[in-house]
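Researcher: Before we compare anything, I want clean individual predictions. No alignment, no superposition, just each chain on its own. First chain goes here; please echo the sequence and then give the structure tokens.
Model: Echoing the first chain and its structure:
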Amino acid sequence: MRKKKRGQVSIEYMGLVGITSIIVLFLLIISNYYSRGIENSINTNQIDGIAKEIVDTAESMYYYGEPSKTTLRIYIPDKIQVINITTDQIILTVTTPSGTANLAYLSDVPLGGEVLSTEGFHDVEIEARGGLVWINGT
């Protein structure tokens, strides 16, 4: 009689550990899924903030007139592949979970220049110069 009780307790314990393990694994999978979504949202907001800050500062420098100049210290995340500055917009080519995307930020003033897209902190000089705003990021 005692051997049957020990065997029954052992099987019940294994069942309890198995169910608990499945629940924990399920919770880990769900938390990983949601953390990736939050990470993508943070990257998108960070990229959006960088571009808007550059455009807003460029417009301010243009309206202040020549020789207005300022320097922004910005962090370029690794998701940005290319930063193109055209005459009326800044175009960021970024890596997303679904591939690459081009994000364009329009400016009311003429722009020119170049900003490096390597990850890390960069000093971006924004200067009103000869009817346009020159943006130079090193």
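Researcher: Okay. Second chain, same rules.
Model: Second chain and its structure:
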Amino acid sequence: MIIDNINNDIARLMKENDKVNLTTLKMAKNAIQTEKINQNKELTNDDVIAVLRKFIKQKKDDIEEYSKFNKDDVVKALKNEVELISSYLPEELSIDDINLGLDEIFADIKPESIKDMGKLMAAANEKFGVNADKALVSKLIKERLS
């Protein structure tokens, strides 16, 4: 499981005295622990993936903000954090793969208007799980409904 890999790497980084990567992994582990407490249950691997994707999204938003103010050193550090955490995640589906899945979903549901967005997103979440960027899926569905 991903959390086991993170815990093993935290132990390894402590021995190697790699404070930068250690801090990043501890922040990610903290986000996982917080979600575990919020849900009041053990997290599945898919839950951990969702938490880490959210963590990465927050870091990417930070990169965007710091870039506006030319804080290149902070941007570089944040990019390294995103890269490190991304290494624990399975590869996301490509746009082509998502579109193929959406073709099937649209064939099954036969949406008539934007009012069917909820049904489409529910079907997409079931089909793709944590392997697709939900914002991208939503955007592609809206484009098809327009």
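Researcher: What stands out in the second chain?
Model: The radius of gyration is 18 Å. Additionally, The first helix runs from residue 2 to 16.
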